[in-house]
Every structure is written in C-alpha cells, then in structure tokens.
Specification:
Number of helices: 6
Distance between the termini: 98 Å
CATH class of the largest domain: Alpha Beta
Order of helices and strands: HEHEHEHEEHH
Structural class: alpha+beta
Radius of gyration: 27 Å
Strand order of the largest sheet: 2-3-1-4-5
Low-confidence stretches: none
Strand content: 15-25%
Oligomer: single chain
Length: about 170
Amino acid sequence: MQRKQKEEVVETLHETFANASAVVVAHQKGLTVAQMTDLRGRMREAGAGFRVTKNRLAKRALDGTPFEGIAGLFSGPTTVAYSEDPVAAARVAVKFADGNDKYVVVGGALDGRMLSIDEVKALASLPSLEELRAKIVGMIVTPATRLAQVTGAPAAQLARVFGAYGSSEEAS
C-alpha cells in the first residue's frame, strides 16, 4: 500500500471514529470469506459498519477522536464494528462471536468511554434505540386507550340492556 493510500485510509477511519457513538474491537483468526461476508451483511442490516483494519493505521486514525483510549486493543488480526446506535454494533458482534470461536470480541468504547468485554456484552443485551422508542410510545398510548375503553363501557352496557329489554318485549 502506498503512502497516499494509507493517508486516505487513515482519514476515512478518522471520520468513521469521529461520527460513531460506539466502537467494538474484535480479533479474527481464520474466518472464511463467506463468514466475513455474512458478518458484514448482519452489521449492515443492523445499521452498523464493519472493517478489517491495519493496526498501525487504525491507531493513527484514533488520534483526536473520543475513542483514543482503545488504541491498546489493536494487536493481531483486528476488526472494528461501529455504529451511531450505541447497541447495534455490540449486539451483532457479540452474537456472531457466540456462534464462532474464530471471532473474539476484545473490548470497545461507548461515547469515548472504554468498555471491557463484559461491558460490551452487557451493552449488546440492551434493547436498541428503536425498540426503546417503540416501548415509550406504547406506554404513552396505552393509558389513552384504556381511558377510552372505560368511558365507553357504561354506554355499551346500557345499550345491551335496552337491546335485551326490547327483544324480550317483542318475544312476548
């Protein structure tokens, strides 16, 4: 790789780290092309990005970003998963690592705070931002729905009584 190409890679990675909310670092040894393609696809579906990085270039790209503290994780064959959603990259990486012993999550960072392996796993178990939003909307809508049911119930019962009374008079 020529110097200019390396500079472009560093610049691209720097922008990626600067715009990400969460970064997950993992080591991969011996993953097949099909497995890497599968992992990239899963990341893309979750709204996360994924890159295999050269350690030296990744360390340079981390300078001046909130994730400078994770530079020590870059040794050996390293991959980086990143996302704006704090949970997406961690969830996909941890799930993939659980099913594949050649892919090992070694740590990460969330909004500039270093995360251990256990913290990354805990982050992966949290609901995503979209799921939390849906739950909040559901909690807001539920009381209004119940209120409408409660206020409508007496009128419905009264209508049923009148209907039953009317049909009993017709029968007699």
